Amino acid sequence: MPDAVLIYAASSHDKNLLWKTRFLAGDPVIYIEAGGRNMLVLNDLELGRGKTEAKVDEVLSLSDIEKELKDAGVKAPAVADVIVSVFKKRGEDRVFVPSTFPFELVDQLRGRGLTLTCRKDPFYPERTTKTEEEIGHIREAVKFTEQAYAKAEQALRETEIRGNELWWKGAPLTSERLRNVIDLYLYENGLLADHTIVAGGEQGVDPHCRGFGPLRPHQPIILDVFPRHLKTGYVADMTRTWVKGKASDMVRRMDAAVKAACETAFRTIKAGVESTDVHKAVQKTIEDSGFKTETINGKPQGFFHGTGHGIGLDVHESPGMGKRGSTLKAGMVVTVEPGLYYPGAGGLRIEDDVVVTTDGCVNLCSYHKNLEIP
Question: Is 5-123 CATH 1.20.1250.20?
Answer without folding.
Answer: no
